[in-house]
Amino acid sequence: MFAVETLNQGPGSPGQLWMQWVPLSWQPAAAALLGAATIVAVFAGLFALTTWLERKGLARIQNRPGPNRVGPAGLLQPAADGLKMLLKEDIRPWAADPWVHTLAPLLKVVPVFCALAVIPFGRHLVALHLDAGLVFFLAMGAITEVALFMAGWGSRNKYSLLGAMRAIAQLISYEVPLALAALTAVLAAGSLSLPAIVDSQAGWYPGGLARWHVFTPWGLAGLVLFFIGTTAKANRAPFDLPEGESEIIAGHLVEYSGFKYALFFLGEYLLLFGYSAVGITLFLGGWRAPFAWLDWIPSPAWFALKLLACIAWFIWLRGTVPRLRADQLMHFAWKFLLPLGLLANAAALLWQATAGWDFAGASLLRWGLAGGLVLVPYQVLGRMLLGAAAGRPRHYRFAD
Amino acid sequence: METAFTVLALGMLVAAAAAMSLRNLIHCALCLVGAFGGAAGLFLTLGAEFVAFAQVLVYVGAISILIVFALLLTSTRAVETAQPWVPPRGLGPTVAGLVTGLLLAAVGLSPGLPEKTAATSAVSVQELGRELLTRQAPALLAVGLLLTAALIGAVVVALREPPPTSGKEEPPA
Question: What is the pLDDT of residues B125-167, one digit of tens each?
Fold first, then answer.
């Protein structure tokens, strides 16, 4: 038990040693600085690692080696890319709006770094414990919409503006199912604070399986909805219409070069990490271990493992799924995800209401009721939206 | 706390003044976003975390985008407006005066706030939610109905009647 506690305290102890040297009156400021510096360093490093992982993963899917020239297995490629971005000339178009064009990349990155502060990365590892942490996270995520608009409009380029309009329409639409999916976990935990939501998933089912929300019917539906929303919010394939290289030559990024361009990518990946981390916190037990006999592994390691698994999943998705059309994007969000999000909440309420049932086969009945509440409309709604196409055999024009 | 209030209030005033006086409408909208952000900061200095974050989520994230969308979608084509029965120059001050008067009257007629005591602590989100769903539920429902009516109205306005059959294919919606 002592060893587990030491391992859990591990990431925090260098900070505590450092804090002993700081005068008492400066300690709050120093602690805040330390937390902020750690988050910035760790997630910027993860960004560098993810660019390499993503290029390697996509290359593997497409049967080519990927980056393999800089460093062992191309591992130093992110450093080379960063250096190149720093040395490139920063070009601002003559017609662009100087202030709006310059401020947009900052407004894209800074709120996302702030949002990462409320996520509990380990047992005692949360930089900012807020009563309304989830709302803070969603609010910070919403600021990026303004940043994208500023980038698109400030560039004074029609492709930029088209990209920005696409981006805003997409972000606003997918915000709704995302928030509804997050609401299911809030309903179950009775709190908006992320550490409290992790605590609500404590304990084990008989057999040693953790009581994560994803192991309930509404939690599974919520997780799927949340990660679909995350893909859309982070502008990743199949929801990368705002960039759409083959249609609108990278949208709001057209007129950006050098490090401002890199900042947009940093912001996009940080958003992906942040939303994945919140998805893990809400449904996948946060930093908790999946099985009782694995509980001795330190909590930050579990969180890192889950986060890397989510990133791998998003890389896989990007390599396999083609881009949606704009009308498909809107129909999917408003006609399919929104009703399913509401139903997932109804299922969560039903699950809560029937928690007291205590007869033979009660849990099976609960699973059937709550699962059917989501699954039956999923099938019916899907078939209705597909129309006649649902009955026909599939025909692939270029792959048959 | 005093310094934070002064800085935020001054920033809000500057942003609001800029939002009213700049030539470019998009710049005005972006300055308005700054003013919304300042209001969220003021809520934070008052210890109202939830309201501050909701302010950012709703106003900075959604309302500002709504304004910008409205600007971009309307400025390119000529908007047909009916001749108002009040001259436009008089309309603004009249509406502003009415709203200000209503607010002042509401504040003046309401009973004074309770004195701050040592026992008063920051309201938690749970208390806020419980209050909204019990004592303030009629107001919440009324606001919900209003928003639903506005949504239906927007759909009705945006809904285009299908043109009489002319043999042509309908343009994609």
Answer: 788 888 888 888 899 999 999 999 998 888 887 777 666 665 5
Alpha helix positions (H), chain A: 2-9, 13-19, 27-61, 77-87, 98-116, 133-154, 158-189, 194-199, 217-233, 245-248, 258-283, 299-320, 326-331, 338-353, 362-386
Residue A91 phi/psi, 5° resolution? -100, 130
Residue of A nearest to B128 (CA): A132
Q: Count of A–B CB contacts within 8 Å?
A: 65
Out of A131, A142, A150, the one facing B56 most closely (by C-beta) is A142
Contact A56, A78 (CB under 8 A): no
Instruction: Please state, in angstroms and rounded to a whole number, the distance separating the CA atoms of residues A283 and A221.
Output: 10
Contact A204, A211 (CB under 8 A): yes
Would you list the DSSP string of A151-174?
Answer: HHHHTT-HHHHHHHHHHHHHHHHH
| Cα–Cα separations (whole angstroms), residue B163 to B34, B152, B153 | 44, 22, 21
| Bridge partners, A291 (sequence order) | A209
**Best CA proximity match to A304, nearest among A11, A29, A31, A63:** A11
Whether residues A143 and B54 touch (CB distance < 8 A) is answered with no
The model's pLDDT over B78-131, given as tens digits with 9 standing for 90+, comes to 445 555 565 667 788 888 899 999 999 988 888 777 666 655 566 677 888 888
- At A242 the three-state DSSP class reads coil
CA–chain centroid gap for B108, Å, is 23
Q: Which string of DSSP letters, residue by residue, matches A174-214?
A: HHHHHHHHHHHHHHHHT-S-HHHHHHTT-SB-TTSBB--GG
How many Cβ atoms are within 10 Å of A378's Cβ, its own excluded? 16
Residue B171 to chain A, least CA–CA distance (Å)? 13
The answer for residues whose C-beta is within 8 angstroms of residue A297's C-beta and 6 or more apart is A7, A289
Q: Do A192 and B50 touch (CB under 8 A)?
A: yes
Whether A132 sits inside 8 A of B33 (CB atoms) is no
For testing contact with chain B, the best of A192, A334, A338, A349 (most B CBs within 10 A): A192
CA distance A15 to A20: 9
CA distance A204 to A211: 5
Return the half-sphere exposure (C-beta side, CA atoms, 13 A cut-off) of residue A150. 26
Distance of CA A48 to the CA centre of its chain: 17
Mutate to test the interface with B, among A128, A153, A183, A233 (most CBs of B within 10 A): A153
What pLDDT digit, counting tens, does each position of A225-281 carry? 999 999 998 888 788 877 777 777 777 888 888 888 889 889 989 999 999 999 999
B30–A143 CB contact, under 8 Å: no
